[in-house]
Amino acid sequence: MRGTVREGTVYSLLCFATIGALVLAGAGDTMFLVLGTLLTGLATFALVAYPDTDPATEAAMKFFVFASVTGAIMIFGLSYWFGAAGSTLLADLPGMDTMPMAVLLGFVAVVVGLGYKASLVPFHFWAPDAYEGGPLSIAAYLSVVPKIGALFALAQVVRDLPPESGWTAIIAGLAVLTMTYGYLAALAQTNVIRLLAYSSIAQSGYFLLGILAVGASELALPSIILFAAAYAAMNLGAFAVAASTGRTLNDFDGLGRAQPLIGLAMVIFLLSLVGIPPLAGFVGKFLLFAAAIDVQYTWVAVVAIINSVLSLAVYLRLVVPMYRQGNVVVARTDIWLKAVLIIALTVTLLLGVFAQVFVGPFA
C-alpha cells in the first residue's frame, strides 16, 4: 500500500477505525456503543476493499451486509433498554431489575452487534473472507484492534447488568461454541490466512471467560487486559511472519531451516497462542481460567483447557512444514516487518518470563 495514490486514505481510515475501537472500549453509554460500532465498521469496510480486486470487493460486501444487519439488531435491542431504564447510560441498567425480559432482549441484541465485531460464533462468517480478501496488514489489524475494542465494550456492558437476568449463561455458551468451532474449522484449512482467521475466532472465546467474571471476581478485568496485550503481540507476530512468507502451508516449507530466527519466532508465537509456559499466552489464559473458576464456571474453564490441547494440533500444521525436508522457502522481510517481529516477540517473551509481576498482586 506504500507509494500508492491512496496511501493517505489508508492512514486516515486506520485512525477512524482506531478511534472507534477506543470509543467502544471506554463506552459508558449505549449511544457510544452505536457510535463506536459505526466508526470502526465504516472504516474497516473500505480498508478490506482497498486492493480493488474481486476477492477484496466480495469480502468487503459480505462484511458490510453482515455489519448492517447486526448493527440494526443491536440498535433495535437497545431501544428496549432505553424504554425500561429511561436512560442511555450503562450505569442506569441496574434499574431494570424488575423487567428481566427487557434486560435479556437488549443483551441478546448487544451480543449480536458486538459479537460480529469480535467475530464470536455464530457471528463470525465475515471474518475468514475479509482476512483472506483484504491486504495482510489490514487482516492483522482487524484481528486485534476492533476485536479487542468490542470485547472491552461487552465487559463494560455486563458490569452493570442485573445478575439475575441470566446473561452469564449466554456468555458461557458463546465461549464454548466460539473456542470449539474456531479450532475445529482451523484444522480443515490449507490457507494460512484463513487458518489464522479461525484461530483468531477461537481466541475470542477465551476472552469471554474473563467477561463471565466481570463484577463478581477481582481477577476479571486484570485477566482480560493481560490477555489482550498477550493476544495482540502473538497474533500480530504470526501475521507478520505470514506477510513475509506466503498465504499457503506450502509457502512455509523449510522456513525454519532456511531462516532459523524467523522460524523460531513463529514457533514462539504459535506456542503462546496455545498457552504454553513460560510465554505470554499462558499467563493470560491462566488468569482467565482462574477468573472463570472463581465465579463457579469451572466447566467452562475445563472446556477451554481441552480446546487449548486441540489448538496444538492446529498450530502444528504450520510448524511441521517449517522444518520439513524438501523445498526451502526464504522469507521476504523489510525493516517494518522486522520491527513488528522484534516488538511482538519481546512482548510475548517478557509478559511470560516476568509473569509473577502481573500474577502476583492477584494470586
Q: Helix and strand layout, with pairings?
A:
Blueprint: H1 7-25, H2 30-49, H3 54-85, H4 100-117, H5 126-133, H6 136-142, H7 145-159, H8 167-187, H9 192-212, H10 220-245, H11 255-258, H12 260-274, H13 280-294, H14 298-322, H15 335-353, H16 355-359
Helix pairs in contact: 1-2, 1-7, 2-3, 3-4, 3-5, 4-7, 5-9, 6-10, 7-9, 7-10, 8-9, 8-14, 9-10, 9-13, 9-14, 10-12, 10-13, 10-15, 12-14, 12-15, 13-14, 13-15
Low-confidence stretches: none
Helix and strand content put the structural class at mainly alpha
Shape: globular
Number of domains: 2
Tell me the β content: under 5%
Helical run tally: 16
Q: What is the average per-residue confidence, as pLDDT, rounded to a whole number?
A: 87
How many strands appear in the DSSP assignment? 0
End-to-end C-alpha gap: 46 Å
Radius of gyration: 20 Å
Largest β-sheet summary: none
- Can you give the helix content as a percent range? over 70%
Describe this structure in words.
By secondary structure, the chain is mainly α. The chain has two domains: 1-164, no CATH class; 166-363, no CATH class. 74% of the residues lie in helices and 0% in strands. α8 packs parallel to α14 and α12 (260-274) packs across α15. The longest helix is centred in the N-terminal third of the chain and has 32 residues, at 54-85. The radius of gyration is 20 Å and the shape is globular. The N and C termini lie far apart (46 Å).
